[in-house]
Amino acid sequence: MSDVHRISNKAEGADFSWGPITAALANFRDRLRLLWVFVPAMLLLTLAYYFLSPNIYMATAVIGPPGTTTVQSLTVGAGSDSVASSVVGAATRRLLGGGAPAGDSFQEYLQILQSVRLAQHVADNGQILPVIFASQWDAERKEWKRGGALRQIKNGIKRALNMRVKDQPDVDDVVEFLNRDMGVTAIMASGSTVLPVATPYYRVSISGTDPARARIILEAILRASDDLIRQEQSRDVSARLNFLRNEMPSITLADQRQIMISMLSSQEQMRMVLAADRWFAHTLVDPPYASSIPTSPKGILFFVAIGIVFGLAVWLLAVGGTIAVPAVGPSLAKIENTFFGLR
User: Fold this and answer.
1) Fewer C-beta neighbours within 10 Å, C or N terminus of the chain?
2) How far from 57 is each of 165, 212, 224, CA to CA, in Å?
3) Dist CA 296 CA 305 (whole Å)
């Protein structure tokens, strides 16, 4: 075989081996340039969302069961072995409605948070409601905003159709707010145990666009929930005192009279505890605090990463679509021609 034939065969072999690979590399290079279109586009979209989204702040507080109080000491019978003391302790526990009033009060307190009962109390309170719905409150005129012409027309149509029209936020709006922006979570003990151990403490949080307003709302809700239980207990104590005072004149036996006097004294002490200006149904372990660092949206680096990932995903779908969907090919060709002049 001549040298010319050998060179010709080598050339044909080279063309046969490297031609498709070279074409594939060239095609991949062209498609790779599209990456500089999709990634910046997705990055701009995510950054626009980041800068246009309002900052959300969170106010938090840690609460726990109330400590040892006069109420608890009244229910143990003073620790003596006398029959009268035992009778007094049992009778007092019966009047108080249970053997562990402090624990029961704290459980009731947790149930009241985010309850319709609390929402109704907040809706009837003229001081808390304007703080929660500050955007609907006119602070200068001290009244609720009536809205623009569009809202007036909408309300007029509702009245014509005998539909309900709300001039101010009501209990349903407060319930929606509590379910959306308020959280109550148990605090788990940190340790080396496999299963998390719950502590008697809970973290209560309120989210909002203004950290100072979120803290004020959280303080008001904690106070309102405690006041609800305090008012209920006060009514019960007043009823017990009236009952004991009415029954006292009819008691003639010395032992029974002594028991009644002890029970009356315990209820008087209970009323003093309720009248004291302090937390009753819970202990404020960590007072409400709102950080100036927003909890949402996340840091800008997070959105940069999301934009890059989305850009890569769209690019992969677009490049893969040229194989699976023939109609995508001309569209990509137009993009390439527009940005890079490839075609």
Assistant:
1) N
2) 32, 9, 22
3) 16
Residue 183 to residue 217: CA distance in whole angstroms: 13
Token pair of 227 as six digits: 């006041």
Sheet of strand 57-64: strand arrangement? 182-189, 197-208, 57-64, 283-290
The helix or strand, by DSSP H or E, that contains position 164, with its residue range, turns out to be none
What's the rounded Cα separation, in Å, for the pair 75 and 15? 99
Residues 113, 245: one domain?
A: yes
This prediction has a pTM of 0.65
On the 0-12 / 13-18 / 19+ scale of CB atoms within 10 A, 7 is: exposed
Q: Are residues 184 and 274 in the same domain?
A: yes
Count the neighbouring beta carbons within 10 Å of the beta carbon of residue 40: 13
User: pLDDT tens, 299-310?
Assistant: 677 767 777 787
> Could you tell me the CATH number of the domain that includes residue 274?
3.30.1890.10
Q: Kindly report the three-state secondary structure assignment for every residue of 38-89.
A: HHHHHHHHHHHHHHHCCCEEEEEEEEECCCCCHHHHHCCHHHCCCHHHHHHH
Whether the CA torsion 63, 101, 122, 115 is positive or negative: it is positive
Spatial contact of 75 and 226, defined as CB atoms under 8 Å apart? no
List per-block mean pLDDT (blocks of 10 residues) for the chain, which spans 343 residues.
51 53 66 74 78 87 76 44 46 45 78 91 86 88 78 72 78 92 88 69 93 94 91 87 85 82 85 79 91 81 76 75 45 53 49
Same domain, 72 and 40: no
- Are the C-beta atoms of 203 and 62 separated by less than 8 Å? yes
SS3 203: strand
Range(s) of the domain holding residue 338: 31-53+300-343
Distance CA 118, CA 171 (A): 9
pLDDT for residue 163: 73
